[in-house]
Amino acid sequence: MHNLDSDSEDELPPGWEEKPTEDGNVYFVNTCNNKIQWTHPRTGHKKVIPKDLPFGWTKTVDENGKPLYVQTETGNKTYVDPRLAFAKEEKKHVNDFRQRFDGSSTAFQVLHGVDLSGKYALITGCNAGIGFETAKSLARHGCNILLANRNMEATQQAIEQIVKETKTSEDNLKSIQLDLSSLNSVKKCAMAVKTVFSDHLDILILNAGVFGLPYEETEDKLDRTFQVNHLSHMYFTLLLEPLLKKGSRVVFVSSESHRMASLKNVFVKQNLAHPKEQYSAMTAYANSKLYNVITAKILSEEWKHKGIAVNSLHPGNMVYTNLSKSWWLYQLLFLLVRPFTKSLQQAAATTVYVATASELEGVTGLYFNNCFYCEEASLARDKDIAKEVFSISLGMIEERVGRENIEKYFEKYCYQNQS
């Protein structure tokens, strides 16, 4: 069960101090009677800290031999072990975590005190909107980011804007072309990513999406909404699997619209893309977002043994972004409700939280909304439906670009379904 206590319980009672050990444990001292204990005097829980100092910190001693910590970049000195800023409750179960943020929280608040130096992230669809705000927030905290977008000119402008607003080094920001309406482009991009991140990828955020499009076929002869929002992201993620290591996090940006999905005739026709003769922009979008949640759940099970976390999320109700630019009616609707929408910083908060929060280490297969987990739609929880969706998706990929580098999933999901 999840502990929903507020953060105020973490505050120590008067007269208590927390102290670190070299091996990453925290103990508590009552300065009035010198009582020492391993559990927090309010919560009764044990706390742990990283064994290594945060990036940029060194340990020395003062003239009296007392431990002194120095921030090498700023020269600031403190007698307080900086690891204590990253103290967290020791979990009895991987899914034990408290709700620290809500729908009004911003990405800035979520990342307070977080150091992402040395981390590598790839974000799709991040030259504007929520994706841009997510990239900017991660960059501000030292993350190396690869921005994967279709429009390279707009991406370079986004990089320049991030550098200007965050003062981060442009060396930490790179761009790569990715056209999600082309599976060949996805394959080409994945190969290029492996040359950029030859070692590992810590964070993969599948953020790009389209909404409200009229029926339009891609070069792969698929409904554009279906391919951009689901199939290409699924294929891209499978191709990048070799870069994902223990501790890596994969984040599928879905939507609460997945609850409005309709799978009528999908399994009869063995085709997940919305048909032209019955096309509905809203249903096509809702279905694609359901497939996001399903894909995240399938891959969370596939990669759990490797320590790779895969989760999905909803970024926020009625967020005002350029996602609604596709149809004038949606533009009008968003204009009317704009005073009641989330800001982009608030909308990016859940993505940033799922991608970076220390308490989510090892947490996988969940769906998040407003910076906390919630139950998905019943269609997303049906394991038989999930396997069928995944199997059909694999078949649609194979039909267009083959099965190179993803053969093992065909053996498990497609051959079994044929037998």
Q: Share of helix among residues? A: 25-40%
The helix-and-strand class reads alpha/beta
DSSP strand tally: 16
What is the end-to-end distance?
39 Å
How is the largest sheet built, in terms of strand order?
11-10-9-12-13-14-15-16
Radius of gyration: 23 Å
Beta-strand level of the residues, as a percent range?
15-25%
Low-pLDDT segments, ≥5 res: 1-7, 318-326, 334-340
Q: H/E order of the elements? A: EEEEEEEEHEHEHEHEHEHHEHHEEHHH
Number of helices: 12
Average of pLDDT:
88
- Report the sheet with the most strands, covering strand number, pairing sense and barrel closure: 8 strands, mixed
Overall morphology: elongated
Biased composition (Acidic residues): 1-12
Keywords: Apoptosis, Golgi apparatus, Lysosome, Oxidoreductase, Wnt signaling pathway
Pfam family, one: adh_short
Domain WW: 10-43, 51-84
What does this structure look like?
It is a single chain. Strand 12 (203-206), helix 5 (224-239) and strand 13 form a beta-alpha-beta unit. The chain has helices at residues 107-110, 129-140, 152-166, 183-196, 224-239, 266-269, 281-303, 328-337, 344-356, 378-381, 383-401, 407-418, and strands spanning 16-20, 26-30, 35-37, 47-48, 57-61, 67-71, 77-78, 88-89, 120-124, 144-149, 173-177, 203-206, 249-253, 309-314, 367-369, 372-374. It has 12 helices and 16 strands. Residues 1-7, 318-326 and 334-340 have low confidence and may be disordered. The chain has an 8-stranded mixed β-sheet, with helices on both faces. It has a 3-stranded antiparallel β-sheet with strand order 1-2-3, with no helix packed on it. Strands 5-6-7 form a 3-stranded antiparallel β-sheet, with no helix packed on it. The protein has 419 residues and is of the alpha/beta class. The two termini are 39 Å apart. Helix 2 (129-140) crosses helix 3 and helix 7 (281-303) crosses helix 11. Residues 1-12 have a biased composition (Acidic residues). InterPro entries: NAD(P)-bd_dom_sf, SDR_fam, WW_dom, WW_dom_sf. It is found in: Golgi apparatus; Lysosome.
